[in-house]
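Board notes (copied after class):
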Amino acid sequence: METARDQLRAETKACPRESVWIDLAAGCLSTSDAELLLHHASLCLECAKRLKSAIEVFSGASPLFEEEMLPKLETSSPTRKAAIARELSNQVSNKKQQRSSWAYWGALAATLIVMISLGVFSFIRYRAQQPPFRLIAGAYTANRTLELRVGNARYGPLRNERGPSSNGSSRPYMLLESQARIRQHLDRDPDDPAWLLAEGRTEILEWQYAGAIETLKKARDLVPAGSGEAPEILVDLATAYYQRAEATNRPIDYSMASDLLGKAIQKNPRFAIAYFNRAIVYEKQHLYDPAIQDWQDYLKFDSNSDWATEARRRLANLRDKMKRANSAIPKGSTILRSIGSNK
């Protein structure tokens, strides 16, 4: 006779590949597929762990406009959380009564996941309707070809290659998935500033700076009245100008980039990425003193990450460059000894 344990083993015999749990946490799957996967995770300890890891990967970033929506989810209310907890407790009790240790630990793992991330299913359904900022950030990290930072992306080593790949298959899957979702949404609603920001960001990753400038200008102009220019849009627009300066040797675009980053900092003085990016732009403009100040300001907000390690390295290199340049100036010269001086 087939036991409950045998049934559970049969149901969970074929585990989905690991990338599916990333797709689930990123909100890239349909509601029906998400329901099936969540049911599987509730019965499979290993997949429960994979789902937990995927949720943690995508839980750190705060995309444009998302913070306003999360508190409104049904599962965020204390009443709903208590109901979920009671339901999960009952499920675990039922598993214990079956005397199946495998089933019990699987249910317990699923309970832990849901208690850590209450409302995850509602959040996944909500996220599927939002711009794929996390996927774009992942694509940036996987193949970073830009000195400047992009939208809360995790650290990635800088690669030498720049510009769109001639072979689409070599582009990160997360970028291809993002572009497909963005195009579908903008075909329906071409004037959505959040999705235009996402499109501009993918164009930046492809070094399509001309298209990014136009897209991000449109996004900036479409931000709802009264909210002002969104700092995220200003930072990405600055990045597009920086790319054009790098690719076409247009010094005026460095000035455009530093001005836009200054506006972003005025709107949000704690926007660390803006300081990081402006320090690099200032160095390109040979404004070394302001660049040093921006690196120091950045490190006040971030002192422990891999990005902070890069910031310290760049700061040390910049100070060494200034020291060598100053030592080359003859004694008694009337030339300013500080190359970066604005005086």
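Comment from the instructor: The CA atoms of residues 201 and 280 lie 19 Å apart. The chain has a mean pLDDT of 77.
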